[in-house]
Amino acid sequence: MADVTSQGVLGAVARKSAVSDPPTFFASTSTPADNGFNGVSPTSVTPPSSMLAGDLVIMNGAYRGSSTMSVSETGGQSWTIGTNFQSASISSRIMWCTFNGTWTADPSLSSTQTTGGPTAVLNVFRPSSTSHVWTEHVSVVNNSFSAPSSPFDISAASITTTLPNAIAFYSWVSADNNTYSLQTAGWSHVSSNQYRNGQGGDSSVSPCYKIMETAGATGAAVNRQTSVAGDLGVTVRVAFV
Fold first, then answer.
1. What is the pTM of this model?
2. 41 by DSSP, 3-state: which?
3. What's the number of domains the chain is made of?
4. I need a labelling partner for 123 at 20 to 30 A (CA). Which of 1, 32, 81, 193 fits?
């Protein structure tokens, strides 16, 4: 089974040159599906079909309440694990890997608690070369946010890339089954605007990204809660190259 490394190892390594062409978003899958229910640990998630070696895989883990999440089934990949961040009634963690071309099993996320509903979302991005090996270019930043008031916008601050063709990946995790709508040009949601889990007290994960063809500041991203609005949560910001 592949090794699982801790956060910070890749972030401390000197950065290599970026690929010559920009990456693209490929697909995302989740357990549960948006507006579904899941209270099982480990939580396995089926990867998108037709993946290629060199694809970047980012797993969003979320839980309504206090829980520590980790990769319980690697699927034959070598995962880097971000910080397990807990704030108020939400726990969040991201993990990532460079796909080696073969899944030996569906990857899974374990949670020390289950009544609040573990959620696992796989977000896949494709580089211009199947030999590309992804690194953490801007280290993970986790922040909590208070329940917003109308129009229920939550802003996640800018990060700065220093190499071209980086992927800025942001995620909002909230303590209810919120739906979301991005308010900032240049940013895109993944396959779904959000992934809601109705287990326990409800939760919602809303991943988005911006392809930084030119190095520089991403600018802040604003995501709006559009239903069941006005709920607190956490944001995640990171970039890969």
1. 0.92
2. coil
3. 1
4. 1
